[in-house]
Specification:
Layout (H helix, E strand, L loop, with lengths): L10 H8 L3 E3 L15 H11 L8 H14 L6 H9 L4 E10 L13 E4 L4 E6 L1 H6 L8 E9 L5 E8 L7 H8 L4 H12 L10 H8 L3 H4 L5 E5 L7 H5 L4 E5 L5 H4 L10 H4 L2 E5 L9 H14 L1 E2 L7 E2 L3 E7 L25 H4 L4 E4 L15 E3 L1 H10 L5 H8 L1 E3 L5 H18 L7 H26 L12 E3 L1
Parallel strand pairs: 4-6, 7-12, 7-13, 8-9, 9-12
Antiparallel strand pairs: 1-14, 2-3, 2-5, 3-4, 5-6, 10-11, 15-16
Helix pairs in contact: 2-15, 16-17, 17-18
Length: 482
């Protein structure tokens, strides 16, 4: 047992401090909601509303939530059933993701109406009032989960009559920082892990492993934070991104098109990078493009500047962070086979130094234990919808970047991109671990600066291996605190 596991987790303290914003994490696994395709940030909200309480669900509670899911959550093959009910004059109430799009077309002689889409039912042309859109502006971006009331207009068009959102809308960051003040550094670190869905008391999760698991949150708290995680299968790389917020988009392997990422030249719809706060490309070792130059060129520009253009459109600016997840092979000692060139077995464009240098770092997923059932959180943590929104709300606070700049010393071993990457990572760790900004320089160096340096060092190793240009700086990045 490591020292980081010696202090027991205090669920009572979490409940006392966060009250209605906390939840017993045993509720979700025993509910079966995630198996029904409901993301955690929605499922925990529903559990607390329908069957509030602590501990695993009783048989009666389980029956109640399953009955609710069966009635309220549509499946893809329910489209015809719901369509029939609408033609019979019924108002159908469902729980799903609702998105709103605006199609601008010149020369039509009239201003087009916005239209709503419900992806799970493949309904793409639903009428919706501007009042609802103005009330919930996030519908125009990545969409919002909630209770949708559907009716039918006289011309046969489905209509969104009403909408009740489920997601946390705004976080009081001052109150959040005050709450942090009531926990020790170790207690807060464990609360973050528990809120992510992991058991912080598990013996395999030592201090080192917890640091790299928390690094997965960096793209949420930092704008335009681009990072890779390389790991063997089974470490749960994508779990948090799938479940924390629908402002995070996950694309799993296969083929990625320019229209998906940037902008659709035919429909003029802005792609994932322009609509979400975080885009995650999973299984990138199998990533393919029909025409790589149409993706890699604009992507390199975006990684460097936060802007991209395509199909003759003007530049689109975005603060979206890009995460790339990949499986890598380990040797007999469970270490990477190519420690000085971690991207050796990834698609060729990863080995282009101009591309690789634009990433803030590589999360060493081989340092994170493989995930199994007893690693699931059973303590009280923050509700996932609140937790995700709190992290995302910290993106615009510049105090953490200022702190990092004031307390970090670089020497001649760090390039400008090294420095920028390390400062962003260090500021991100500050937001995750010390949102109240009450810490010593020693705390900063140990918990923020050194992990930030290590993230970037994995990039430096490959750059040093691939290109003589980087050898003038030496193999190791050296930094200090002040």
């Amino acid at each position: 047992m490591t020292s980081s596991n010696l202090q027991s987790y205090d669920s009572d303290r979490v409940r006392q401090v966060f009250r209605a914003l906390s939840i017993d994490k045993t509720r979700l696994p025993s509910s079966g909601l995630t198996g029904a395709g409901v993301p955690s940030f929605v499922a925990e909200w529903l559990l607390d509303k329908i069957i509030p309480g602590n501990g695993p669900l009783s048989t009666q509670e389980s029956d109640k939530i399953h009955d609710f899911v069966r009635k309220a959550f549509p499946r893809k093959d329910d489209r015809n059933v719901i369509s029939f009910k609408l033609t019979q004059g019924e108002v159908c109430k469902i729980i799903a993701l609702l998105q709103v799009r605006v199609r601008l077309e010149r020369g039509k002689g009239e201003i087009p109406d916005p239209f709503a889409t419900i992806p799970v039912l493949n309904l793409t042309e639903c009428s919706i009032s501007t009042d609802l859109i103005e009330r919930y502006e996030a519908l125009l971006r990545q969409g919002v989960w909630g209770k949708i009331s559907l009716g039918l207009l006289s011309d046969g068009t489905p209509e969104v009559i009403d909408f009740d959102p489920f997601q946390c809308s705004k976080v009081d960051l001052t109150a959040y920082a005050d709450c942090r003040d009531r926990f020790s550094s170790q207690e807060w670190r464990d609360l973050m892990l528990c809120s992510m869905g992991y058991n912080p008391e598990h013996l395999a999760y030592n201090h080192h492993a917890k640091t790299w698991m928390l690094a997965r949150l960096l793209p949420l708290v930092e704008s335009n934070f681009h990072v890779m995680e390389l790991a063997p299968k089974g470490t749960g790389k994508s779990y948090v991104f799938e479940n924390i917020s629908n402002k995070v988009a996950l694309v799993s392997g296969g083929k990625v098109t320019p229209a998906q990422l940037f902008i659709n030249g035919r429909t003029k719809e802005v792609g994932l990078l322009g609509r979400h706060d975080v885009v995650v490309l999973d299984e990138v070792q199998s990533l393919t493009f029909d025409n790589p130059s149409e993706v890699i060129g604009p992507l390199k520009n975006y990684l460097a500047s936060g802007r991209y253009n395509r199909s003759g459109f003007s530049d689109i600016s975005s603060d979206c962070s890009l995460v790339m997840l990949a499986n890598i092979e380990l040797d007999a000692d469970l270490r990477p086979r190519h420690p000085n060139h971690l991207v050796a077995n990834l698609p060729d464009f990863f080995s282009e130094t101009a591309f690789l240098d634009r990433f803030a770092g590589i999360i060493p997923g081989w340092e994170i234990p493989k995930f199994n059932r007893d690693m699931v959180a059973f303590q009280t943590g923050l509700k996932m919808d609140f937790f995700g929104e709190a992290l995302l709300s910290l993106r615009q606070d510049n105090r953490y970047q200022s702190y990092a700049q004031q307390h970090t010393l670089f020497d001649g071993t760090a390039t400008v991109r090294d420095q920028n990457a390390i400062l962003k990572s260090a500021a991100g760790f500050l937001k995750i671990l010390y949102p109240h900004l009450k810490l010593t320089v020693m705390d900063y160096e140990r918990d923020c600066l050194e992990p930030a340096r290590q993230l970037r060092q994995w990039i430096r190793n490959s750059l040093f291996h691939l290109d003589d240009e980087f050898r003038q700086y030496g193999p190791e990045i050296r930094i200090g605190s002040r």
